[in-house]
Protein backbone atom coordinates (compact mmCIF):
# COMPACT_ATOMS: atom_id res chain seq x y z
CA UNK A 1 0.00 0.00 0.00
CA UNK A 2 1.25 3.44 -0.85
CA UNK A 3 2.23 5.41 2.21
CA UNK A 4 2.51 8.88 0.68
CA UNK A 5 0.03 11.61 1.58
CA UNK A 6 -1.70 11.09 -1.78
CA UNK A 7 -1.91 7.38 -1.06
CA UNK A 8 -3.61 8.01 2.28
CA UNK A 9 -6.00 10.51 0.77
CA UNK A 10 -6.89 8.10 -2.02
CA UNK A 11 -7.55 5.36 0.53
CA UNK A 12 -9.78 7.74 2.52
CA UNK A 13 -11.71 8.84 -0.57
CA UNK A 14 -12.14 5.25 -1.68
CA UNK A 15 -13.45 4.20 1.74
CA UNK A 16 -15.99 7.05 1.80
CA UNK A 17 -17.04 6.31 -1.80
CA UNK A 18 -17.51 2.62 -0.98
CA UNK A 19 -19.69 3.54 2.04
CA UNK A 20 -17.15 2.06 4.39
CA UNK A 21 -16.63 3.62 7.81
CA UNK A 22 -13.63 5.72 8.75
CA UNK A 23 -12.20 4.63 12.09
CA UNK A 24 -10.18 6.65 14.64
CA UNK A 25 -6.70 5.51 13.64
CA UNK A 26 -7.28 5.88 9.91
CA UNK A 27 -5.71 8.76 8.09
CA UNK A 28 -8.31 11.50 7.41
CA UNK A 29 -8.16 15.04 6.00
CA UNK A 30 -7.73 17.64 8.73
CA UNK A 31 -10.85 19.47 7.56
CA UNK A 32 -12.87 16.25 7.91
CA UNK A 33 -11.59 15.82 11.44
CA UNK A 34 -12.32 19.46 12.31
CA UNK A 35 -15.78 19.29 10.81
CA UNK A 36 -16.63 16.18 12.81
CA UNK A 37 -15.29 17.66 16.05
CA UNK A 38 -17.40 20.77 15.49
CA UNK A 39 -20.56 18.80 14.78
CA UNK A 40 -20.10 16.13 17.48
CA UNK A 41 -19.18 18.76 20.09
CA UNK A 42 -22.24 20.84 19.29
CA UNK A 43 -24.33 17.69 19.45
CA UNK A 44 -22.84 16.64 22.82
CA UNK A 45 -23.33 20.12 24.26
CA UNK A 46 -26.96 20.07 23.10
CA UNK A 47 -27.56 16.85 24.98
CA UNK A 48 -26.29 18.14 28.30
CA UNK A 49 -27.74 21.64 27.98
CA UNK A 50 -30.98 19.92 26.95
CA UNK A 51 -31.20 18.41 30.41
CA UNK A 52 -32.04 21.81 31.89
CA UNK A 53 -35.41 22.78 30.40
CA UNK A 54 -36.93 19.45 31.39
CA UNK A 55 -35.15 19.03 34.71
CA UNK A 56 -37.00 22.25 35.53
CA UNK A 57 -40.17 20.16 35.85
CA UNK A 58 -38.95 17.04 37.68
CA UNK A 59 -39.91 18.33 41.12
CA UNK A 60 -43.32 19.43 39.83
CA UNK A 61 -44.31 16.37 37.79
CA UNK A 62 -48.01 15.65 38.33
CA UNK A 63 -47.58 11.99 39.31
CA UNK A 64 -44.90 9.58 40.46
CA UNK A 65 -45.17 7.79 37.10
CA UNK A 66 -44.48 10.97 35.17
CA UNK A 67 -41.70 11.92 37.55
CA UNK A 68 -39.90 8.57 37.16
CA UNK A 69 -40.23 8.83 33.36
CA UNK A 70 -38.88 12.37 33.29
CA UNK A 71 -35.91 11.50 35.49
CA UNK A 72 -35.07 8.55 33.24
CA UNK A 73 -35.26 10.80 30.21
CA UNK A 74 -33.03 13.49 31.68
CA UNK A 75 -30.56 10.80 32.74
CA UNK A 76 -30.59 9.51 29.14
CA UNK A 77 -29.67 12.98 27.88
CA UNK A 78 -26.63 12.96 30.16
CA UNK A 79 -25.72 9.54 28.80
CA UNK A 80 -26.12 10.74 25.22
CA UNK A 81 -23.78 13.63 25.96
CA UNK A 82 -21.19 11.19 27.26
CA UNK A 83 -21.44 8.87 24.23
CA UNK A 84 -20.83 11.88 22.04
CA UNK A 85 -17.95 13.34 24.06
CA UNK A 86 -16.35 9.89 23.81
CA UNK A 87 -16.80 9.93 20.04
CA UNK A 88 -15.19 13.39 19.86
CA UNK A 89 -12.33 12.13 21.99
CA UNK A 90 -11.47 9.46 19.41
CA UNK A 91 -10.63 12.40 17.13
CA UNK A 92 -8.06 13.68 19.60
CA UNK A 93 -10.16 16.35 21.31
CA UNK A 94 -10.45 15.96 25.07
CA UNK A 95 -13.55 16.42 27.17
CA UNK A 96 -12.05 19.21 29.25
CA UNK A 97 -11.28 21.25 26.15
CA UNK A 98 -14.82 20.83 24.80
CA UNK A 99 -16.47 21.74 28.09
CA UNK A 100 -14.24 24.77 28.34
CA UNK A 101 -15.28 25.88 24.86
CA UNK A 102 -18.94 25.42 25.79
CA UNK A 103 -18.57 27.36 29.02
CA UNK A 104 -16.80 30.24 27.31
CA UNK A 105 -19.26 30.39 24.41
CA UNK A 106 -16.76 29.32 21.76
CA UNK A 107 -18.83 26.27 20.83
CA UNK A 108 -22.57 26.21 20.41
CA UNK A 109 -25.46 23.97 21.35
CA UNK A 110 -28.80 23.66 19.61
CA UNK A 111 -30.66 26.97 19.85
CA UNK A 112 -33.90 25.14 20.71
CA UNK A 113 -32.76 24.88 24.35
CA UNK A 114 -32.77 28.64 24.72
CA UNK A 115 -36.56 28.60 24.90
CA UNK A 116 -38.22 28.31 28.33
CA UNK A 117 -40.45 25.48 29.60
CA UNK A 118 -43.37 27.51 30.92
CA UNK A 119 -45.88 24.77 31.70
CA UNK A 120 -46.02 21.02 32.27
CA UNK A 121 -47.31 20.61 28.72
CA UNK A 122 -43.94 21.87 27.47
CA UNK A 123 -42.41 18.62 28.69
CA UNK A 124 -44.78 16.82 26.33
CA UNK A 125 -44.17 19.19 23.44
CA UNK A 126 -40.40 18.81 23.84
CA UNK A 127 -40.68 15.02 23.78
CA UNK A 128 -42.95 14.96 20.76
CA UNK A 129 -41.56 17.81 18.67
CA UNK A 130 -38.01 18.51 19.82
CA UNK A 131 -37.04 14.87 20.25
CA UNK A 132 -39.04 14.04 17.13
CA UNK A 133 -37.03 16.56 15.12
CA UNK A 134 -33.84 15.26 16.71
CA UNK A 135 -34.72 11.69 15.68
CA UNK A 136 -35.44 12.79 12.10
CA UNK A 137 -31.99 14.40 12.07
CA UNK A 138 -30.24 11.57 13.83
CA UNK A 139 -31.52 8.44 12.13
CA UNK A 140 -29.49 9.19 8.96
CA UNK A 141 -26.46 9.93 11.17
CA UNK A 142 -26.45 6.24 12.14
CA UNK A 143 -24.92 5.78 8.66
CA UNK A 144 -22.43 8.62 9.05
CA UNK A 145 -19.02 7.88 7.53
CA UNK A 146 -17.22 8.22 10.85
CA UNK A 147 -17.58 4.94 12.77
CA UNK A 148 -17.59 6.10 16.41
CA UNK A 149 -20.13 8.86 15.69
CA UNK A 150 -22.37 6.46 13.77
CA UNK A 151 -22.23 3.90 16.59
CA UNK A 152 -23.05 6.54 19.22
CA UNK A 153 -26.04 7.56 17.09
CA UNK A 154 -27.38 4.00 16.88
CA UNK A 155 -27.45 3.83 20.66
CA UNK A 156 -28.94 7.31 20.98
CA UNK A 157 -31.69 6.72 18.42
CA UNK A 158 -32.82 3.58 20.21
CA UNK A 159 -33.23 5.54 23.41
CA UNK A 160 -34.75 8.64 21.82
CA UNK A 161 -37.81 6.77 20.68
CA UNK A 162 -38.91 6.39 24.30
CA UNK A 163 -38.40 10.13 24.72
CA UNK A 164 -40.67 10.94 21.84
CA UNK A 165 -43.39 8.50 22.80
CA UNK A 166 -43.57 9.61 26.43
CA UNK A 167 -43.98 13.21 25.25
CA UNK A 168 -46.70 12.26 22.82
CA UNK A 169 -48.55 10.26 25.45
CA UNK A 170 -48.27 13.15 27.90
CA UNK A 171 -49.73 15.60 25.36
CA UNK A 172 -52.50 13.17 24.47
CA UNK A 173 -53.49 12.89 28.12
CA UNK A 174 -53.66 16.68 28.40
CA UNK A 175 -55.44 17.08 25.09
CA UNK A 176 -58.14 14.62 26.19
CA UNK A 177 -58.33 16.19 29.65
CA UNK A 178 -60.19 19.24 30.92
CA UNK A 179 -60.60 22.26 28.62
CA UNK A 180 -57.84 24.02 30.58
CA UNK A 181 -55.49 21.06 30.10
CA UNK A 182 -56.31 20.90 26.40
CA UNK A 183 -55.57 24.58 26.08
CA UNK A 184 -52.28 24.14 27.90
CA UNK A 185 -51.27 21.41 25.45
CA UNK A 186 -52.24 23.58 22.46
CA UNK A 187 -50.31 26.52 23.86
CA UNK A 188 -47.17 24.39 24.25
CA UNK A 189 -47.45 23.11 20.67
CA UNK A 190 -47.95 26.68 19.45
CA UNK A 191 -44.73 27.78 21.11
CA UNK A 192 -42.55 24.75 20.21
CA UNK A 193 -43.61 24.10 16.61
CA UNK A 194 -41.59 26.79 14.85
CA UNK A 195 -38.43 26.46 16.95
CA UNK A 196 -38.59 22.70 16.22
CA UNK A 197 -38.60 23.38 12.48
CA UNK A 198 -35.57 25.63 12.98
CA UNK A 199 -33.69 22.70 14.52
CA UNK A 200 -32.93 21.41 11.03
CA UNK A 201 -30.74 24.42 10.45
CA UNK A 202 -30.79 27.16 7.82
CA UNK A 203 -32.20 26.56 4.34
CA UNK A 204 -29.92 24.56 2.05
CA UNK A 205 -28.73 27.53 0.05
CA UNK A 206 -27.57 29.32 3.22
CA UNK A 207 -26.12 26.39 5.12
CA UNK A 208 -22.39 26.94 5.58
CA UNK A 209 -21.22 23.36 6.08
CA UNK A 210 -23.86 21.27 4.30
CA UNK A 211 -22.34 20.58 0.89
CA UNK A 212 -18.96 19.42 2.17
CA UNK A 213 -20.54 17.37 4.96
CA UNK A 214 -22.71 15.59 2.43
CA UNK A 215 -19.73 14.91 0.15
CA UNK A 216 -17.97 13.32 3.11
CA UNK A 217 -21.14 11.39 3.99
CA UNK A 218 -21.20 12.90 7.48
CA UNK A 219 -24.64 14.20 6.54
CA UNK A 220 -26.88 12.11 4.32
CA UNK A 221 -29.79 14.48 3.61
CA UNK A 222 -30.10 18.23 3.28
CA UNK A 223 -31.61 20.43 6.01
CA UNK A 224 -34.68 21.24 3.90
CA UNK A 225 -35.30 17.61 3.00
CA UNK A 226 -35.22 16.54 6.65
CA UNK A 227 -37.44 19.47 7.66
CA UNK A 228 -39.99 18.48 5.02
CA UNK A 229 -39.89 14.89 6.19
CA UNK A 230 -40.56 16.03 9.77
CA UNK A 231 -43.53 18.19 8.77
CA UNK A 232 -45.06 15.30 6.82
CA UNK A 233 -44.64 13.00 9.82
CA UNK A 234 -46.11 15.49 12.30
CA UNK A 235 -49.32 16.46 10.51
CA UNK A 236 -51.18 13.16 11.07
CA UNK A 237 -49.71 12.85 14.57
CA UNK A 238 -51.13 16.27 15.47
CA UNK A 239 -54.52 15.21 14.13
CA UNK A 240 -54.49 12.12 16.32
CA UNK A 241 -53.65 14.35 19.28
CA UNK A 242 -56.56 16.63 18.51
CA UNK A 243 -54.17 19.60 18.45
CA UNK A 244 -53.55 22.13 15.70
CA UNK A 245 -50.16 23.04 14.27
CA UNK A 246 -49.83 26.84 14.37
CA UNK A 247 -49.32 27.42 10.65
CA UNK A 248 -52.19 28.82 8.52
CA UNK A 249 -50.24 27.94 5.34
CA UNK A 250 -49.87 24.28 6.23
CA UNK A 251 -51.69 22.16 3.66
CA UNK A 252 -51.36 18.98 1.64
CA UNK A 253 -49.90 19.51 -1.81
CA UNK A 254 -51.34 16.83 -4.05
CA UNK A 255 -48.84 17.49 -6.81
CA UNK A 256 -45.74 17.19 -4.65
CA UNK A 257 -47.24 14.49 -2.47
CA UNK A 258 -46.00 16.43 0.54
CA UNK A 259 -47.17 19.24 2.80
CA UNK A 260 -46.58 22.88 2.00
CA UNK A 261 -45.85 24.98 5.04
CA UNK A 262 -45.37 28.63 5.93
CA UNK A 263 -42.18 30.69 5.96
CA UNK A 264 -39.87 30.27 8.93
CA UNK A 265 -38.81 33.38 10.82
CA UNK A 266 -35.05 33.08 10.27
CA UNK A 267 -34.46 36.47 11.88
CA UNK A 268 -35.61 34.94 15.18
CA UNK A 269 -33.34 31.94 14.61
CA UNK A 270 -30.31 34.17 14.07
CA UNK A 271 -31.11 36.26 17.13
CA UNK A 272 -31.34 33.19 19.37
CA UNK A 273 -28.14 31.83 17.82
CA UNK A 274 -26.41 35.12 18.56
CA UNK A 275 -27.27 34.72 22.23
CA UNK A 276 -30.42 36.82 22.41
CA UNK A 277 -32.91 34.02 23.03
CA UNK A 278 -35.05 34.02 26.18
CA UNK A 279 -32.77 31.62 28.11
CA UNK A 280 -29.25 31.73 26.61
CA UNK A 281 -27.73 33.42 29.63
CA UNK A 282 -29.52 31.22 32.13
CA UNK A 283 -28.56 27.95 30.41
CA UNK A 284 -24.87 28.67 30.22
CA UNK A 285 -24.67 30.18 33.70
CA UNK A 286 -26.37 27.15 35.16
CA UNK A 287 -24.03 24.82 33.25
CA UNK A 288 -20.95 26.65 34.47
CA UNK A 289 -22.22 26.63 38.01
CA UNK A 290 -22.99 22.90 37.90
CA UNK A 291 -19.46 22.25 36.66
CA UNK A 292 -17.84 24.43 39.31
CA UNK A 293 -20.00 23.12 42.12
CA UNK A 294 -19.21 19.56 41.06
CA UNK A 295 -15.47 20.14 41.39
CA UNK A 296 -15.32 18.70 44.90
CA UNK A 297 -16.83 15.41 43.67
CA UNK A 298 -14.17 15.10 40.98
CA UNK A 299 -11.48 16.01 43.48
CA UNK A 300 -12.70 13.47 46.00
CA UNK A 301 -12.83 10.67 43.43
CA UNK A 302 -9.32 11.50 42.23
CA UNK A 303 -7.96 11.68 45.79
CA UNK A 304 -9.54 8.32 46.61
CA UNK A 305 -8.04 6.73 43.50
CA UNK A 306 -4.59 8.08 44.38
CA UNK A 307 -4.89 6.83 47.93
CA UNK A 308 -5.89 3.41 46.74
CA UNK A 309 -3.05 3.19 44.27
CA UNK A 310 -0.78 3.84 47.25
CA UNK A 311 -2.35 0.78 48.87
CA UNK A 312 -3.97 2.34 51.91
CA UNK A 313 -7.56 1.44 50.93
CA UNK A 314 -8.52 -2.08 49.76
CA UNK A 315 -10.33 -2.53 46.45
CA UNK A 316 -13.93 -3.67 46.60
CA UNK A 317 -14.72 -7.30 45.88
CA UNK A 318 -16.54 -6.50 42.68
CA UNK A 319 -13.37 -5.30 41.05
CA UNK A 320 -11.26 -8.27 42.04
CA UNK A 321 -13.89 -10.73 40.95
CA UNK A 322 -13.54 -10.23 37.20
CA UNK A 323 -13.90 -13.26 35.04
CA UNK A 324 -10.61 -14.73 33.88
CA UNK A 325 -11.59 -15.55 30.32
CA UNK A 326 -14.23 -14.64 27.79
CA UNK B 1 -4.29 17.91 39.32
CA UNK B 2 -7.73 16.54 40.13
CA UNK B 3 -9.53 17.66 37.01
CA UNK B 4 -11.06 14.88 34.92
CA UNK B 5 -8.27 15.26 32.37
CA UNK B 6 -6.17 13.26 34.80
CA UNK B 7 -8.66 10.44 34.83
CA UNK B 8 -7.67 7.54 32.63
CA UNK B 9 -9.81 6.41 29.73
CA UNK B 10 -11.46 2.99 30.05
CA UNK B 11 -12.87 0.76 27.35
CA UNK B 12 -16.13 -0.89 28.32
CA UNK B 13 -17.11 -4.42 27.28
CA UNK B 14 -20.60 -5.72 27.99
CA UNK B 15 -21.90 -9.29 27.96
CA UNK B 16 -25.48 -8.75 26.89
CA UNK B 17 -26.66 -12.14 28.11
CA UNK B 18 -25.29 -15.43 29.29
CA UNK B 19 -23.87 -17.49 26.45
CA UNK B 20 -22.55 -14.50 24.50
CA UNK B 21 -19.10 -12.90 24.52
CA UNK B 22 -18.39 -9.50 25.97
CA UNK B 23 -18.64 -6.90 23.22
CA UNK B 24 -17.11 -3.45 23.10
CA UNK B 25 -19.78 -0.89 24.06
CA UNK B 26 -17.78 2.35 24.27
CA UNK B 27 -15.46 4.20 26.56
CA UNK B 28 -15.53 6.50 29.56
CA UNK B 29 -13.30 8.35 32.01
CA UNK B 30 -13.01 7.34 35.63
CA UNK B 31 -10.43 7.78 38.38
CA UNK B 32 -10.17 4.04 39.09
CA UNK B 33 -11.48 0.64 38.04
CA UNK B 34 -14.26 0.57 40.59
CA UNK B 35 -15.67 3.93 39.49
CA UNK B 36 -15.22 2.88 35.88
CA UNK B 37 -17.43 -0.16 36.53
CA UNK B 38 -20.10 1.90 38.26
CA UNK B 39 -20.07 4.55 35.57
CA UNK B 40 -20.18 1.87 32.89
CA UNK B 41 -23.26 0.36 34.51
CA UNK B 42 -25.01 3.74 34.55
CA UNK B 43 -23.88 4.67 31.06
CA UNK B 44 -24.16 1.45 29.05
CA UNK B 45 -26.70 -0.76 30.86
CA UNK B 46 -29.60 1.52 31.77
CA UNK B 47 -31.99 -0.83 29.99
CA UNK B 48 -30.78 -4.28 31.02
CA UNK B 49 -28.28 -4.41 28.18
CA UNK B 50 -25.85 -6.43 30.22
CA UNK B 51 -25.29 -9.20 32.76
CA UNK B 52 -21.55 -8.59 33.08
CA UNK B 53 -19.20 -5.69 32.40
CA UNK B 54 -15.45 -5.52 31.88
CA UNK B 55 -13.54 -2.27 32.02
CA UNK B 56 -10.02 -2.13 30.60
CA UNK B 57 -7.65 0.84 30.70
CA UNK B 58 -7.45 2.03 27.08
CA UNK B 59 -3.70 2.37 27.48
CA UNK B 60 -3.47 -1.39 28.08
CA UNK B 61 -4.81 -2.24 24.62
CA UNK B 62 -2.37 -3.08 21.86
CA UNK B 63 -3.93 -2.56 18.44
CA UNK B 64 -2.91 -3.47 14.92
CA UNK B 65 -2.68 -0.28 12.91
CA UNK B 66 -5.23 0.14 10.13
CA UNK B 67 -2.48 1.83 8.12
CA UNK B 68 -0.74 -1.51 7.94
CA UNK B 69 -3.97 -3.25 7.08
CA UNK B 70 -2.73 -4.74 3.82
CA UNK B 71 0.47 -6.45 4.94
CA UNK B 72 -0.93 -7.42 8.34
CA UNK B 73 -3.99 -9.22 7.07
CA UNK B 74 -2.81 -10.05 3.56
CA UNK B 75 -1.76 -13.59 4.32
CA UNK B 76 -5.37 -14.66 4.77
CA UNK B 77 -6.57 -13.05 1.57
CA UNK B 78 -5.04 -15.55 -0.88
CA UNK B 79 -6.28 -18.66 0.90
CA UNK B 80 -9.83 -19.14 -0.32
CA UNK B 81 -9.42 -22.88 0.23
CA UNK B 82 -9.97 -22.16 3.93
CA UNK B 83 -13.66 -21.56 3.17
CA UNK B 84 -16.15 -24.36 2.55
CA UNK B 85 -17.51 -22.56 -0.52
CA UNK B 86 -14.14 -23.16 -2.26
CA UNK B 87 -15.04 -26.80 -2.90
CA UNK B 88 -17.29 -28.17 -5.61
CA UNK B 89 -19.58 -30.93 -4.52
CA UNK B 90 -21.77 -32.92 -6.97
CA UNK B 91 -25.41 -31.93 -6.86
CA UNK B 92 -27.62 -34.03 -4.66
CA UNK B 93 -24.91 -34.97 -2.20
CA UNK B 94 -26.26 -34.16 1.24
CA UNK B 95 -24.98 -33.34 4.72
CA UNK B 96 -21.70 -31.81 3.42
From TrEMBL, chain A:
**Which E.C. number(s) belong to this protein?**
1.14.13.149
The main enzyme category here is: oxidoreductase
Keywords from UniProt, A to Z, are: Oxidoreductase
Name of this chain's protein: 1,2-phenylacetyl-CoA epoxidase subunit A
Q: Recall the taxonomic lineage recorded for the source organism.
A: Bacteria, Bacillati, Actinomycetota, Actinomycetes, Kitasatosporales
From TrEMBL, chain B:
Matches recorded under InterPro entries: PaaB, PaaB_sf
Q: Which domain of life is it from?
A: Bacteria
**Which Pfam families does the record associate with it?**
PaaB (PF06243)
Matching entries from NCBIfam families are given as:
PA_CoA_Oxy2 (TIGR02157)
What name has this protein been given in UniProt?
Phenylacetate-CoA oxygenase subunit PaaB
Amino acid sequence: METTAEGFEAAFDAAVAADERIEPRDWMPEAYRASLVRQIAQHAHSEIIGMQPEANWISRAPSLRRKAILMAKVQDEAGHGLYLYSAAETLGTGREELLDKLHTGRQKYSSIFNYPTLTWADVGAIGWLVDGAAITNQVPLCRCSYGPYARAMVRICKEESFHQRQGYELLLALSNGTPAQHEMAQDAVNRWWWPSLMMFGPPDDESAHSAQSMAWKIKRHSNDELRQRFVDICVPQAEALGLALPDPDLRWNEERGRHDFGAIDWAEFREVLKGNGPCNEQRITQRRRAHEEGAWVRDAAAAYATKRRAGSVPAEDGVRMMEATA
Amino acid sequence: MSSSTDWPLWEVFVRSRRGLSHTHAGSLHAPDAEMALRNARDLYTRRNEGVSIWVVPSSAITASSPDEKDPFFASAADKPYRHPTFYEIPEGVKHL
